[in-house]
């Protein structure tokens, strides 16, 4: 039994338990968490690459934006305990980016401008569960929130949705990314509160 | 270096007893926490705090650790009026109360005394807390790396750790920027941190004669961190030499 903190009481409203995972609270803001300066890459130099398949694939910004995209509204959950409901995004589904690509990989390591990486199982990127998002709230995705494009994997804690994403490295075996190397969970399911290693 | 200090113990909540409580400003308070079984931390890390109400309701938040490694664990908390945890920790809690902690958490925004680079610390408001842990660790470990702390506050009354910073040890320069109000006769900066200020305060990105390149730690609200980090990159700091920690308006 956890000790009771004398004089502490709930102040926030009850949150819908089917929308907000355990240990989270709802915010209307969109906080920013990054380990370093916000990178600024010119669109003329931007590419999105998939490495580790039988053949490497790469798209320029124009090629990427010419792919079929979709609009979606979803909830996002940050490991620092804020959740934001009904966020509106526009992006290219990973189903589109990975379709027809021959590979033997079970895992992917997303990599970003600025050196950030994070690992996600390939199965969590397919089936309408993940996007490379370039739009937010009806406009372009701002640089502080990961623009020009970020990974969006909303069913996992939001550090898996790598900002400034530039590609995926397909891997046969799981490999920790930036925060995972510092003790954060390899998978990061908010509904199971997988914040840290061992959760 | 990655991760060694954080793995293994994170999924264990430990009972903490609140020790000495001291007011830093009208809105900010430092709490000593006595935590049997605490494995220690590194300067710059944070800790998860969990409160449990008598009806079983729980709330968790992360707070930067204010003490140096080797000192009793302490956190410094700023009251956010619409918050749930920070008003409790700054107004209600008193010595002898119990709460839970787990951690330490974070391994990137960390300073070790073995690092020999000149240090540029930049703090906005309560972003000074993890940087204070680094300053105390520098002193405790006998490090002589030169340090400049650029610290942005609304007013002199909002400066956290003011006495301690006024008595900064040799090798540590504290440069205040007071953004909203300044006392009579104030000769320091009286505006938000901008590129010109950074150019005046920051160690040169490329020091002469092969000396160590500076290392910067920047902590504060998002707008502050964005401005400082971008400014340092403009001044030639490699992005990997600028480590940041941000909290949004909702980082309650």
Describe the structure.
The complex is a heterodimer of chains A (199) and B (252). Chain A has 199 residues and is mainly beta. Chain A has one domain: Alpha-Beta Complex (Sulfite Oxidase, Chain A, domain 2), CATH 3.90.420.10. Chain A has helices at residues 61-65, 94-98, 178-181, and strands at 25-26, 47-51, 57-60, 70-77, 82-93, 107-112, 117-121, 131-136, 139-140, 150-152, 165-171. In chain A, the strands form two sheets. In chain A, strands 1, 4, 5, 8, 9 and 10 form a six-stranded mixed β-sheet that branches. Chain A has a five-stranded mixed β-sheet with strand order 3-2-11-6-7. The longest helix of chain A has 5 residues, at 61-65. Chain B is α/β, with parallel strands linked by helices and 252 residues long. Chain B has two domains: 14-105, Elongation Factor Tu (Ef-tu), domain 3 (Beta Barrel); 119-247, Nucleotide-binding domain of ferredoxin-NADP reductase (FNR) module (Rossmann fold). Chain B contains five helices and eleven strands. Chain B has helices spanning 86-92, 128-141, 162-166, 195-201, 222-234; strands at 14-23, 28-34, 46-52, 58-64, 74-78, 98-105, 119-124, 147-153, 172-178, 215-221, 242-247. The radius of gyration of chain B is 18 Å and the shape is globular. Chains A and B meet through loops of A and β3, β4, α1, β6 and α5 of B.
């Amino acid at each position: 039994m956890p000790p009771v903190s004398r004089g502490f009481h709930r102040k926030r409203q009850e949150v819908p338990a089917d929308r907000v995972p355990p240990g989270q609270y709802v915010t209307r803001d969109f906080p920013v968490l990054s380990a370093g300066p916000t990178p600024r890459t010119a669109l003329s130099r931007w590419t999105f690459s998939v490495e580790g398949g039988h053949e490497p694939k790469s798209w320029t910004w124009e090629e990427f934006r010419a792919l079929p995209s979709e609009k979606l509204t979803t909830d996002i959950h940050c490991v620092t305990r804020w959740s934001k409901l009904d966020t509106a995004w526009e992006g290219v589904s990973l189903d589109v980016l990975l379709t027809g690509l021959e590979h033997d990989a079970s895992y992917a390591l997303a990599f970003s401008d600025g050196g950030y990486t994070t690992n996600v199982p390939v199965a969590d990127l397919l089936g309408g569960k993940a996007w490379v998002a370039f739009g937010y709230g009806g406009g372009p995705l701002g640089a502080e929130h990961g623009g020009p494009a970020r990974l969006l994997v909303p069913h996992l804690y939001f550090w898996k949705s790598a900002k400034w994403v530039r590609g995926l490295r397909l891997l046969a075996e799981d490999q920790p990314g930036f925060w995972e190397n510092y003790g954060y969970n390899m998978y990061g399911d908010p509904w199971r509160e997988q914040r840290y290693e061992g959760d | 270096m990655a991760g060694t200090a954080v793995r293994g113990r994170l999924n264990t909540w430990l009972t903490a007893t609140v020790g000495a409580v001291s007011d830093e400003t009208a809105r900010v308070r430092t709490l000593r926490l006595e935590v049997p079984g605490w494995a220690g931390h590194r300067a710059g890390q944070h800790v998860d705090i969990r409160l449990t109400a008598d009806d079983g309701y729980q709330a968790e938040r992360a707070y930067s650790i204010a003490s140096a490694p080797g000192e009793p664990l302490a956190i410094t908390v700023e009251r956010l009026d619409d918050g749930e945890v920070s008003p409790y920790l700054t107004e209600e809690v008193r010595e002898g109360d119990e709460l839970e902690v787990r951690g330490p958490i974070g391994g990137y925004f960390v300073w070790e005394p073995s690092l020999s680079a000149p240090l540029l610390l930049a703090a906005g408001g309560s972003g000074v807390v993890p940087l204070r842990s680094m300053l105390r660790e520098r002193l405790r470990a006998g490090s002589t790396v030169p340090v400049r702390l650029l610290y942005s506050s609304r007013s002199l009354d909002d400066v956290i750790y003011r006495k301690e910073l006024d008595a900064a040890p040799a090798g540590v320069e504290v440069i205040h920027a007071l953004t909203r109000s300044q006392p009579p006769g104030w000769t320091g900066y009286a505006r938000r941190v901008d590129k010109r200020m950074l150019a005046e305060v920051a160690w040169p990105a490329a020091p002469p004669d092969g000396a160590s390149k500076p290392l910067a730690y920047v902590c504060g609200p998002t707008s502050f961190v964005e401005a400082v980090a971008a400014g340092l990159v403009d001044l030639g700091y490699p992005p990997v030499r600028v480590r940041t920690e941000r909290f949004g308006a909702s980082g309650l």
